[in-house]
């Protein structure tokens, strides 16, 4: 009987902890988990499972300073691709990243994932922010 009571209290505590997540945390979790799927299908082949890049060919996604400094340009880079030289962690990468035909919500998802994985911690990038950034491209 005591074991059932203890198990019931433990279950109740777990339910309370899970249900106490803020709306912001729940939104972040939705963007992040969806972004993981987009990353695996669209980005991982070039940038690596751990965002490590591919030697001198593909830049890593582990440089928080680069991502923070270029946050407003990330949406444009994902949507329209990149050409030319990029300096990341004092290393030059030159080549082409192809454009991606992704909707703003998919771009927001993958950017939230990338900017909060591989040692990065930059919070949620919403689809509204992506739409604003995309209007400023080119």
SSE diagram, text form:
Blueprint: H1 2-19, H2 23-42, H3 44-47, H4 64-69, H5 71-80, E1 82-88, E2 91-97, H6 104-114, H7 127-135
Antiparallel strand pairs: 1-2
Total count of domains: 1
CATH architectural type: Orthogonal Bundle
Largest sheet: 2 strands, antiparallel
Number of helices: 7
Structure write-up:
- The protein has 138 residues and is mainly α.
- It has a single domain (23-135), classed as Cytochrome c-like domain (Cytochrome Bc1 Complex, Chain D, domain 2, Orthogonal Bundle).
- The chain contains seven helices and two strands; from the N terminus they run αααααββαα.
- Strands 1-2 form a two-stranded antiparallel ribbon.
- β1 (82-88) and β2 (91-97) form a beta hairpin.
- α2 (23-42) crosses α6 (104-114) and α5 crosses α7 (127-135).
- The longest helix is centred in the N-terminal third of the chain and has 20 residues, at 23-42.
- It starts with a helix and ends with a helix.
- The relative contact order is 0.17.
Search tags:
mainly alpha, Cytochrome Bc1 Complex, Chain D, domain 2, two-stranded antiparallel sheet, 7 helices
């Amino acid at each position: 009987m005591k074991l059932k009571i203890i198990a019931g209290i433990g279950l109740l505590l777990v339910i309370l902890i899970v249900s106490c997540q803020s709306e912001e945390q729940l939104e972040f979790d939705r963007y992040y988990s969806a972004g993981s799927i987009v990353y695996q299908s669209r980005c991982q082949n070039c940038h690596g499972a751990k965002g490590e890049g591919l030697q001198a060919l593909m830049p890593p996604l582990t440089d928080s300073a680069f991502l923070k400094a270029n946050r407003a340009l990330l949406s444009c880079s994902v949507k329209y691709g990149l050409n030319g030289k990029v300096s990341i962690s004092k290393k030059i990468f030159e080549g082409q990243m192809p454009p991606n035909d992704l909707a703003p919500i998919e771009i927001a998802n993958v950017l939230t994932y990338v900017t909060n994985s591989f040692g990065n911690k930059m919070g949620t990038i919403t689809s509204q922010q992506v739409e604003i950034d995309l209007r400023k491209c080119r």
